[in-house]
């Protein structure tokens, strides 16, 4: 319920929009597909929201208080990556998604992600081509 309230007030962005096609085409649970994408999408987005990611970094690691925003923002991304490792979040390859099948549907996945409207809410709004590249990057992403 709290997540629904948050979505109603703030909407969702790139991770969520890219996650939907993974679930629809490859039957990956939505939470897992979001987690698969989150670190790479944060890396992609970071330059457009360093100040906001720095706040998250300082909440996660209070010892970063007083450090520059770039360092604190990078720490937030690193901590999310570590969380994915700790939770054994698979990438698309280790989930069992066939790479040749993925390549055949990348264009559709990117179109569907954009059509969801969610990527337009991202601090760094991607193009169709950038979403395709992110899916390719995430296929065997190493947290």
TrEMBL record:
Highest taxon above the source species: Bacteria
Coiled-coil region: none
Domain Fe-containing alcohol dehydrogenase-like C-terminal: 3-137
Signal peptide, first to last residue: none
Protein name: Alcohol dehydrogenase class IV
Organism annotation: Caldalkalibacillus uzonensis
